[in-house]
Every structure is written in C-alpha cells, then in structure tokens.
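Annotators were shown the component list below and the corresponding predicted structure, then asked to write short factual statements about the assembly.
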Amino acid sequence: MSNWYEVISEKTDYILQEIYQHPFIKDLMGGKLSKEVFNFYINQDSIYLAEYKKILAETGIRCEEDQDTQFFLGAATGIIHVEDALHENFLTGEQRTTQASPTCELYISYLSRIVHTKSLEEGLAAVLPCFTIYKEVGDYILANQSNKGENPYQDWINTYGGEEFANSVKQAIDITNKLASKASPERIEKMNEAFEKASKLEWMFWDSAYKQEAWKV
Ligand SMILES: Cc1ncc(CO)c(N)n1
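Structure shown to annotators:
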C-alpha cells in the first residue's frame, strides 16, 4: 500500500516540474543567475527562514511523541547554523533589506496561520514542502549540472542536494506519514490542500525572486 507522501507527491508533481523549468532554477543550475537576483532571493530567504524556524519549533511543541518533538526542535535550531553560514557566504557586503516581499509575507503568514490555528496533521503537511521541494531541487541540479567546479552557486546546491539534508527530509516525511496513517479522510483532504498550497508557494517564492517582486505601492 502506498503511503500519504507517495500519493500527494505524485498528485503535486506538476508543481515540481514547473519549478525545474523555472528560469530561476535553470539559471541557477547553469551558474548564470544574476547576482542581483540571487542576492534578492537570499535576502528574502533569510527573512523567510527566521520565521520558518519559529513555525518548526511550534510544530515540534505540538507533536505528542518525544522523538517527533526533538526532530522539529532540532530542525529549527539547525536552520540557525546552516542558513547563517549560507547567508554569511552569499550576503557579505551586499545590500540587505528587512522588508519581506509580498510573496515572502504570504508564505510565512500562511504557514503561521495553519500551524497556529489548524490541526497538527495539517500543519505538518504545510511545512513539509519546504523540506521535500528543496531536496528534490538540490538532487535535480546535482544530477543535471555539468559545471560543478565553476558554478558560483555550488555551495547553495550542495547544501540541499547533500546527504545530511536528505536525512532530515526523510524524518519529516516519516513523521507526517505516521500521523496521516491515523487521520480521517476529511483530515487527509485538508493535509493534501495544505501540501499543495505550500508547494505552489515554493514555486512563487522563486518566481518572485526572479522578478525581484516589489510592493505595488
Ligand atoms: C522558501 C524556502 N523554502 C524552503 C527552504 C529549505 O529550508 C528554504 N531555504 N527556503
């Protein structure tokens, strides 16, 4: 029998395919992404991660089993180390903003709303694409790039294509599958909606960075 994650990842594969085809990812893979765009992305991502870390901690607090709590709290603190390093490498001397773009604001606000006001299962499904999509994208780029020695964004690619991240992603999937296996069909439907929406927001996050999205007024 297939598990929840297998079913939902197949159903939302079209979003992943759109991400692979997005010019942000194509240019990142080719090492041709403009520094300005990448800087905008990293800047927004550091704003995103500062909030995402709290969202993961809240998810951990809501888990009933100690190992699950430990995993999410560990993932939350892990973000502080890994991301600080990435952002230090890539944001030195560059212009920084503390203003979230509309899409960044939308994504963190959405996750925060789901995790704080909906069921634990729905919250788990909402935070999962941040793990799984980055792993898929990291693996995809590693498997398809032909410029490993000379891509200025290789450190970023290695972070998400690496084994350490894969291990963490597997645990997040396992915990979510475990809760899904005991959830009602109605709750599964909510989980599916949350996973799909968060996956779309991942696409939008890259798209908004590529366009250096600004507030309309
Ligand atoms: C927007 C976004 N989603 C997921 C990750 C992976 O942690 C990230 N760094 N940024």
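Statements collected:
1. The chain has one domain: 4-210.
2. Residues 35-62 form the longest helix (28 residues).
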